[in-house]
Amino acid sequence: MKSILLNILPISLIILTVFSVQQWLKIPVSSTFIVWGLNFFILYIILRFIQQAPHSIQRTIQRYDLYIINIFMIWTLFNCIRGGIIADNYWEWKQLITGMLTLSLPLFIFIFSIPVILNITLYYWFKFALIIFVCLLPFLGTQAYHFYLGPLFLVGCFIPLLPSKWKIVITGLLVVMVVINLGARSQVLKALMVLFVALGVYYKRFFSIKIFHIILWSCYLIPIILLFLGISGKFNIFEDLASHKGKYTESKVVGGKIVEEDLSADTRTFIYKEVITSAVKHHYVIWGRTPARGNDSMAFGKYTADELKTGKYERHSNEVCHPNVFTWLGLIGVVLYSLIYLRSSYLAVYKSKNIYMKFLGCFIAFRWAYGWVEDFNRFDIMNISLWMMIAMGISISFRDMTNVKFRRWIKNIFITGNEIKTYRFLNKKLDYADRNNF
In angstroms, rounded to a whole number, what is the distance separating the alpha carbons of residues 101 and 379? Predict the structure, then answer.
């Protein structure tokens, strides 16, 4: 099992990285069934690890955190069974499988909470996936870089800790993501936030514990307040931003013509209206509609109803993370899903012995907040990278690292010299890791 984890899992994730951007590639690389096969194989590896190494998991994840994750997975399984009962056509069965895979992402916490496994996975990813990325550049749309380069959002938070060469490479890639396509607002904002976190790490001596606490709770409270104000009709931040129409534009070439794209356009209010209205109308606010179904949508439902011949005006998945979870799993699912984020970021900020996990905890909180604006729910490397971070926050092993040990862990992702061929060799390189956890 150790051999599988050290070799097959990292290789599988590198292949999945390429599959993650296939819809933006100008060349075909795979099919839906091949992608599903790889996804289920990765989940099989994780489930086998959970089965064979329960004591390792218990040593690195507290019992209370295990309860939260397990309850969420049980609720997901329950709704997937419900979905299998109500699905009545090919497309709903396809949606059920896609949704089930997406909602299984918290399982990665069990495996990536162990520092040695995450270190080796990132080592192989940075060694090979970036080379493949360069080869794919002529065929890849600029708006899709962040779907491929997800692990950069994790490691990029700690640019000041990296070897000199990698500081330049990762900073350069993040800057490219910021400037190459301003219309890809999610890509730009995430990359900018990573650079801000890295800047904070560089000037960490100016950050007190109180500042971390303020950032953490602001990321959780502000979205809830804005959501309440928006639903009550008192204030809609998306409409407010859209009121600056024409002030923030980008010129781009479309079909050989130069067009102006409004970067402040409100593309979210109608999604929230459709999601909430659909849930109230069909009485699934608490329980969800299952991953086999989507929310009623007049904006996008015509394609599902007419082109796919389902007769149902529904949109299975929107660009916004948490409303999707709400549609599939209801309020219960959203609360459980959010508790995992909250617990990870809280532990990272309040219970870590090193300052770097506190920065990561704030970034995890930001990603939860941004999940109300835009964050695609997909089984891809970008989302897996997010759950790598969440796993680190929940992990006792990561939180128990001192500043020195955490810096050594980050630097060992980029170790040079002879190829890593055996676990014994790698274990010596990672002597600070808790070997009993693996």
Answer: 6
Neighbours of 26 (CB within 10 A): 9
Q: Which residue in this structure is represented by tokens 């209205």? A: 277
| pLDDT value, residue 254 | 38
Once rounded to an integer, what is the mean pLDDT over residues 311-332? 93
Of residues 86 and 299, the one with the higher pLDDT is 86
pLDDT of residue 252: 46
Q: Read off the pLDDT of each residue in 237-254 and give the average, rounded to a whole number.
A: 55
Q: How far is CA 263 from the centre of its chain?
A: 23
- Residue whose structure tokens are 């409270």: 221
**Is residue 313 within 8 Å of residue 305, measured between CB atoms?**
yes
Question: What residues contact residue 299 under an 8 Å CB cut-off, 6+ apart?
Answer: 270, 274, 315
The position carrying tokens 């204030």 is: 235
| DSSP code string of 327-389 | HHHHHHHHHHHHHHHHHHHHHHHHS-SSHHHHHHHHHHHHHHHHTTT-----SSHHHHHHHHH
Q: What is the pLDDT of residues 336-382, one digit of tens each?
A: 999 999 999 999 999 999 999 999 999 999 999 999 998 889 999 99
Q: Please indicate whether residue 30 or residue 404 has the higher confidence score (pLDDT).
A: 404
The answer for 181, left when phi > 0, alpha when psi is -120 to 50, beta otherwise, is: beta
Query: Tokens 């862990």 sit at which residue?
Result: 409
Dihedral angle computed from the Cα positions of residues 419, 425, 426 and 427, in that order, rounded to the nearest 10 degrees: 180
Q: Read off the tokens for 282.
A: 């069909």
- 3-class SS of residue 305: helix
203: CB partners within 8 A, 6+ apart: none
Q: Which residue has the tokens 């010299």?
A: 417
In this prediction, residues 232-253 reach a mean pLDDT of: 61
Q: Which one-letter DSSP state was computed for residue 89? A: S
Residue 323 reports pLDDT greater than 90: yes
What pLDDT, in 10s, does the model give residues 217-231? 999 999 999 988 888
Count of helix runs (H) and strand runs (E) in the chain: 23, 4
Helical (H) or strand (E) element with 258: strand 257-262
Alpha helices in 87-206 (DSSP H): 90-103, 108-112, 115-124, 130-136, 145-148, 150-155, 164-179, 185-202
